[in-house]
Amino acid sequence: MVNTLLLPELREMLSENNGDDLKEFCSAMNAGRTAEFMEGLSDAEAWQVLRHAELPRRAEIFGHFSHQRQVSILSQHDPSEIAELLEEMASDDRVDLLQELSDNRVGEILPLLPLADRRDIQRLYSYPEGTAGSLMTTEVAKLDEKLSVRQAFEALSEQSEQFETIYYLFIVGEHDQLRGVVSARQLVTALRTPDKPLSELVQTDVVTALTTEYQESVAEKVEKFNLLAIPVVDEARHLVGIITHDDIIDVVRQELNADAQQMAAISPLDNDLLRVGLMTLSWKRGIWLAILFFTALLTAFALRYYESEFTRASWLAWFIPLIISSGGNSGSQSATLVITAMTSGSLKLSNWRLVIGRELLVSVMLGGFVAFFGLVVALLVAPSRTEAFIIPVTLFFVVMSGCICGASLPMMFKKLGLDPALMSNPFVAAIVDILGIFIYLNVARLLTR
Fold first, then answer.
1. Long-range contacts for 76-82 (Cβ within 8 Å, ≥24 apart)?
2. Domain ranges, residue 121
3. Do both 80 and 200 map to the same domain?
4. Within this chain, do residues 278 and 392 fall inside the same structural domain, yes or no?
5. For residue 53, which of 70, 35, 39 has the smallest C-alpha distance?
6. Same structural domain, 382 and 303
7. How many structural domains are present in the chain?
8. Chain segment 354-413, per-residue pLDDT in tens
9. Secondary structure (3-state) at 380
10. Is the whole-model pTM more than 0.70?
């Protein structure tokens, strides 16, 4: 019955306050599916349904709600019930949510949490945004190196519900100093020798992240070494938490969104599109439009400077859009390829010679390809065959300059310590437009003397 439950039936349960059926609804399915069935409910109705679930199950279903709904529920309902819910959540998730609430609301909730949880929240609050410390969870499966295999299983059986993952078991020494890692598979295999100490199983070569390390660097490590979780340590190598692969996926998604927005000449948004204020959205888009406006204004000045060329050969004006678009498109292609390669980590600054060399060869082939079509068209409209060659020669060099600029400018920004995505496609296109006009009209001067 529950698998075919419709929203009206769920609302009917609520109106009748049918506690037994609501409790069954919350417990019968996968938590994610349960949350999906509740999407059509208001935030107040969703919370009313959740109150019929056992506390651990309530937190599990709540974790599948949209971020916006989670914040709304935490903002509105009884602080004591909210505190109970937060107590069941992973430490990193609850800190992320608390940061979205007003100071007054946080002040109502925090005193109702256990002292250990309050201290944990304050510690995670202290790490700068975007660092491994702010991203980690402190629920980590750590075992003393002196324990035997049997004792390790006993310890895990008592604490496993508190851990976000037990794929990796981190072995620590005195004062929680990280010694190494033992996988869950290794521990199960070692059951044949239950008295063997963990110190004999531990792998000491562990990839770690510092609490102050930027999240982009952490994501690169997780991707490079194909990790399910990465331990986070302080300067003294004390184990303070872990970052799991689901958190890394969120980081990668955020970075991709930010890069895509910058490549479209938009300052990265701090929130979902529909939750960003209109004034904020207008500013983040408008500032780049203003920069691009003044960059494009240089193109207008260049055209004015070469006004005499158009007076002598008015047909040249017909091809201005073609010249500009060819250079801008080729530059945007190169910039996109280089920026995405640098973002993924497959392209390093040390490869710049190889990149420019390859781009030079590709630009020659692309320029020749486009120039051929330009020649065919120009022969039909140009006053003479000599003048017809203005178009293909210009297209060849404009495409070449677009490719080289598009490939080199992002790397130059990276070298200067700036985000290469700032050298966005519209910005590259604006620069190449000016070069295109300069090349076009100087070629025209040379061939019409």
1. 76/43, 76/44, 76/47, 77/47, 79/105, 79/108, 79/109, 79/112, 80/112, 81/51, 82/109
2. 2-130
3. no
4. yes
5. 35
6. yes
7. 3
8. 999 999 999 999 999 999 999 998 888 888 888 889 999 999 999 999 999 989 988 888
9. helix
10. no
